[in-house]
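Let's practice the habit of predicting before peeking. Look at the sequence and jot down your guess about where helices and strands might fall. Then scroll down.
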Amino acid sequence: MGKQVQQQTWELFCQKVAQASGGHARGPVQVETIEHDKDSAEAQAHA
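Done guessing? Here is the structure:
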């Protein structure tokens, strides 16, 4: 459920930014989830 809420939040944000700038979205928001091993260098950098 959390991922769905986060996706909806980003979709709305992108739509509002496009409207506020006088433009329009180039297409739908694409969501990609990348999971990292908790011991990886990337995970440690974001800890």
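How did you do? The radius of gyration is 15 Å.
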